[in-house]
Design brief:
Elements: H1 17-36, H2 50-61, H3 65-78, H4 88-104, H5 113-136, H6 143-175
Helix pairs in contact: 1-2, 2-3, 2-4, 2-5, 2-6, 3-4, 4-5, 5-6
């Protein structure tokens, strides 16, 4: 008897309509969280939870590098809403999304992966933002401002790490992607 082969639809990347919709929904959630984050402020700065939503999207959808860069760039464009430092998010969010894509590809234990990947991707995005701000808006940047922005970055990284770790399991189950 000949063995039957069944073609399985590729569930990764943005070519899958379900994944594309998921990323869009996650971006919308990120906008709402970003607007809500205004109540959580340190000085004049607040955490960017849009990073958590693109990290979760990239963790679940597993886009290729180009698609991840597009997700990051769109997140950067969205982050222009209510920012006092225009255009910096375009670069920092693109770097963060690309970092998340590269980090997700590294083999590591299932339960550790969202923690490590999200924390590092958020730090890369946040410190890229701080660096760009230092170069373009505050040259030289006062030490107190650098420390304040660094604290916001680290707190956001921890919060995003928790958000993505907690949500990755149910999102994967709903989508039938338990192999993460």
């Amino acid at each position: 008897m000949e063995k039957r082969n069944v073609a399985v639809e590729e569930k990764r990347g943005l070519k899958n309509t379900k994944n594309l919709i998921l990323v869009g929904v996650m971006m919308a959630v990120g906008v709402v969280l970003r607007l809500f984050a205004g109540v959580i402020a340190l000085g004049n700065m607040h955490p960017n939870f849009l990073i958590a939503t693109y990290c979760l999207s990239i963790f679940v959808v597993r886009p290729n590098l180009k698609e991840a860069a597009i997700i990051g760039f769109i997140s950067g464009a969205i982050s222009q809403i209510g920012t006092s430092m225009a255009w910096l998010g375009l670069g920092s969010e693109t770097l963060g999304a690309v970092a998340m894509c590269l980090l997700v590809a590294i083999p590591m234990p299932k339960l550790v992966k969202p923690v490590v990947c999200t924390f590092l991707a958020t730090c890369i995005s946040g410190f890229a933002f701080v660096g760009l701000a230092a170069i373009t808006y505050a040259n030289p940047m006062p030490a107190a401002q650098f420390v304040s922005m660094s604290i916001v970055t680290l707190v956001t990284a921890v919060l995003n790490m928790v958000i993505v770790t907690v949500l990755a399991i149910p999102v994967n189950k709903v989508l039938g992607l338990d192999e993460n």
